Structure formats: structure tokens, C-alpha cells
Amino acid sequence: MNVKKLADLDVAGKRVFIRADLNVPQDEAGNIVEDTRIRASLPSIRYCLERGAAVMVTSHLGRPAEGECRAEDTLAPIAVRLGELLGKPVRLIRDWVEGGFEVRAGEIVLLENCRCNKGEKKDNEELAKKMAALCDIYVNDAFGTAHRAEATTHGIARFAPVACAGMLMGAEIDALTKATENPARPLVAIVGGAKVSTKLTILKTLAQKVDQLIVGGGIANTFLLASGKRIGESLAEPELVKEAQAIMDMMKARGAEVPLPVDVVVADEVSALARANRIPVDEVGPHDRILDVGPKSSAKLAEIIAHAGTIVWNGPVGVFEHNQFAGGTKMMASAIAHSEAFCIAGGGDTLAAIAKFHIAQDIGYISTGGGAFLEFLEGKKLPAIAALEARFAD
Ligand code: 3PG
Ligand code: MG
């Protein structure tokens, strides 16, 4: 991809505006639960600080209403964590669009939640111009938000004096290109999670490319329905059964496969105290909810993974947050960890599973993208990357 790279630029004494994706999960009190995205943003920030740039970093957090910044929208906890990781204080600047704040060379400030600014989501041109005027160099390092054309991810790139990709953005593009352009075969995709509808297009695209398509969670339930199984009260999308059927047919026609569970773990509720039962898939009762794959099924998945050349992983196969429904995802994680295949993984739940089962060091590349990761794999042109490409020549 033809984009300018931060590492090729002289940033000394320059005002550098970094759009990062620091949209991390928090608990009800606002504590950061998982900080992968913050850590992944450090190389670009350090690069600029060490070379004496005046560094402004911004990000969105959640999906706030524009024009106000409620307590739950603030980047304050992120400023604290960033400061801990950098070993220096990070000032948080509110109401920053019009400027009027100082940043010294070698200093970093965090600009409050960019989605609190009016016009951010709609990629407003006036807003983009004002933000561009704050800097000499615009750096997009927010791969996780690269599928959104917003003022800080897209518009600003048109008006900033220089627009380039940060180190994380560059690494993401390189790793995902490697896995998709000429993957070692067999190529195995794992797509789990709750809903088929949000992942339907990716499933269709993958069905044309991969050798095995492992589906998990609510997605697998919809596929089970499509193959004529009873799923009781399990989460599924019956209106998408035809689509699921079409995907299975597409795979079959290519001599490929969607392996479906032969046994499952069921309970009558999703909770930490729920009593789990392992049963053959044909014995699912009318009030059962399928919350994980059973041991026979996970052994089969592990075998597929063991023979893979490349693995693309997005989403768990069970409700792994609760230990009684974690067996399938755990077995899969361990198979991935032991496999020789190049594995790229992405998405919030996937990152949480990787952390829970301590396999981060065994994954070829962990993407910070969820939606962006999937859209890149679909072969879509991500608007934030397109905006950088448009500025490559000048
Ligand atoms: C994500 O968490 O997927 C990214 O930060 C993008 O967030 P969004 O889905 O609210 O645009
Ligand atoms: Mg999201």
C-alpha cells in the first residue's frame, strides 16, 4: 500500500497530531479492563517524543453524543494509563479544536474524546480543517477505526500539511496483507461470536477463499438450524438460515467444509452459576441453550487447526467468560498456540480469550482491529487508509 510512513519523516520540533485508537474496554467504574490498544500505540508516540516533537494524541472512546462530554466519555483514565506506560505525565486537554493550548517539544498531551466534537462522525470539513491547522504532521495510527470515515480518521488527512501512517497502522497493514495475499494452505478461518448478521458479508467472502470455515457461538447455532438441527432456546438468527445454507453450499462446491458441532454444552441460562450439561447435538431439548461446543467437537476443531498453514481468528466458540462454557475456546486457543501455522487474530472478544488463556506470545499477529480487521480481510478498501494513500505523492 502506498502510504507515507512516520518512520521516514523528520519530526524534530514539529507539531505532530496522532489519531490513535484508545477505545479500550472499561468496567462500570471506568477502570480499564484490557489495555492492548494503549500499549500498541506506544511505538509511534515514543518515536515522536524521543525526536523532540510536540505530540498531540487523540482517540474516540465509545460512541458518545456529539456536543457534550459526559463523565463516561472522558479519556481521563486513558491519560493516566498512558502516563504510567510512558513514565511521564500526560495532560488531558478539553475543548481543543480551536487550539489555544501549548505543547512543548518532547511533551505529550491527550486531546479529549474526539467523538465529543460536533461533526466528527459525519467527517465535517470545517472541523477537519480546524484540526489540521493544529499540526505540521498528521499521523493515523488508529487501525481499529480505519473502517470509519470520520473527521479525525479521514477528513483531517486531506488538509494537514503532511499525512502519514503510524507504526501500528503500518504493522497492521503488513501483517494482514501477508495473511491474505498468498497464505500458506490450508487456510482456516474461525468466525465466532453472537451474530451472523454483522458478520455475514465476511462469512461469504471467506467462504470463497478458505479451506475450512469454523463457525462458533450464535453464528454456529444459525448454521445448525440451517442443517436441520434443533437448538432449543439458543441464540440464533432464524431469518438468516437461508444465507447460512448458501454459505455451506458454496463451501461444499469448492470441496471445502463448514465443520459443525456434533456435541455441545448446554444450560438453561447464561450465568456464572449455570449448570452445564454435555450432550450430543441431536439431544438438545426445547429449553436448552447451547453455550459451548462439546469435547468431541473441540477435538475435531483442534485437529483442523493442527494441520492449518494459516489461521484467521475472530471470535470465540463459546461463552468463555464463564469457565463451564470455556472448554471449546480454551481447546481451540491451545491448538492455535501449538500449531505451526501463521495465525492472525483480531476483535475484542478474541483479545480477551487470548489474554485469558495466556497464548499471546504464540499468535503470529494480534490485530487491534475488530470491525476494521474483518473489513480488511473482506478485501474492502478502508477509508482511513485510502485517505493516506491519496496523500502519498505530495
Ligand atoms: C472498535 O472498537 O471496533 C473501534 O474502536 C471502532 O469503534 P466503533 O465501532 O464505535 O466505530
Ligand atoms: Mg466496535
From TrEMBL:
Substrate binds at D21, L22, N23, R37, H60, L61, G62, R63, R115, R148. One of its GO terms (molecular function) is kinase activity. It comes from the Bacteria. Pathway: Carbohydrate degradation; glycolysis; pyruvate from D-glyceraldehyde 3-phosphate: step 2/5. Its EC number is 2.7.2.3. Its main location: cytoplasm. InterPro entries: Phosphoglycerate_kinase, Phosphoglycerate_kinase_CS, Phosphoglycerate_kinase_N, Phosphoglycerate_kinase_sf. It catalyses: (2R)-3-phosphoglycerate + ATP = (2R)-3-phospho-glyceroyl phosphate + ADP. Pfam families: PGK. It is found in: Cytoplasm. Keywords: ATP-binding, Cytoplasm, Glycolysis, Kinase, Nucleotide-binding, Transferase. ATP binds at K199, E321, G347, G348, D349, T350. Belongs to the phosphoglycerate kinase family. Monomer. This is Phosphoglycerate kinase. It comes from Aromatoleum anaerobium.
